[in-house]
Amino acid sequence: MSKNVLVCENVSVRFSLTKPANRWRLLFDNTDWGDWHEALNNISFKVPKGTVVGVIGRNGAGKSTLLRSMVGLYPLFRGRVVRLGQISSLFELGGTAGIFISGKQYITRWLSLNGVSKKNWSKIIKEVAEFSELYDKLDEPIYSYSTGMAARLYFSTATSIDQDIYLIDEVLSVGDEHFQAKCWARIRYRLGRGISGVIVTHDWTAILKICKHALKLENGQILAAGNPEKIICDYLNVSSQLNPNSPAKFTKNCPLTLTARSGKDWGFDIPIKNTGKESVLFNFTIEKLEIANDWQVIFFGDQTKVASSEGSYVIQINITKLPLPPAEYRLNLFLNGPNQSNGTVGPSYDSRSWTTGNSIRLVVVGEPIAGLVLIPFRVDLK
Is 277 a member of any domain? Predict the structure, then answer.
């Protein structure tokens, strides 16, 4: 328990569907009488210190209910939630006050509710004014703010002090692109200081950016838990969009893991089988997942024709003096049909990528070399 800052054990939440006129009966029997909606059913997971857990799911899956149950807004029907640390809830921003007070009054009320010493208020208010870019607008009533201005005030205030645990619900998209970038920079800063928390969202890219563990929620139940990449692949289900009868495919002999040495010439063979008579085009990318930064594409290959008739083929790729520092990457491979007459990419035949859950693991070993990245780099493809 000492290594976990947030624990959900068999958490269940239900809401009454009984007509308002009959709800008085629930005072006498709230388990067997009337209709209920099981919003959460037997949810269990842990949030280790320094880890952000992502929860992905479609509308009605129970994501927001789970977050509000963890902070104590919704009573539990069964189970318990253990919180070990000070919590900042980034959802329903602005819920601590009305719209008739000023922005500055909102900040001081929030600071008071969170037990922040008054001697620090002046410094924090100044910091919120700068981060939100509201400045003198803080003296004006909130009802005079635009939606974006209010969102900037609420987010800036909620993240103005270090908390032990953050519970985040779809708030990293507040404001315009400029302010969203500032939000992500602040979250990355908090991550660097070892924050813990839970983020629930429809935005699967947010899960990949900041989470080390993820849950897939559906109908109030956890259907899958584990590595964010695998959970997101399952959620997107991109592989189902590939035609199982495509004429060109990577064979079962396609490697699962490849190893290369940094700064050394490197090559690999990719076997494919073509059962059609049209041209088959091949392309590849090398990507790396950086927490708080999303997938970073390191290499883009050039689309190349690799087959034009039936048969088995081996695609040979050679990279001179591989300009990658030691790390783990993902090698993504793509087979497409001929491009359309209007220049658009042809139909997708097969892929090995993280979005389809079957990318090739590329492990680069060796010693870091100064000035390693060579632009342009050379790729020989046969």
Answer: yes
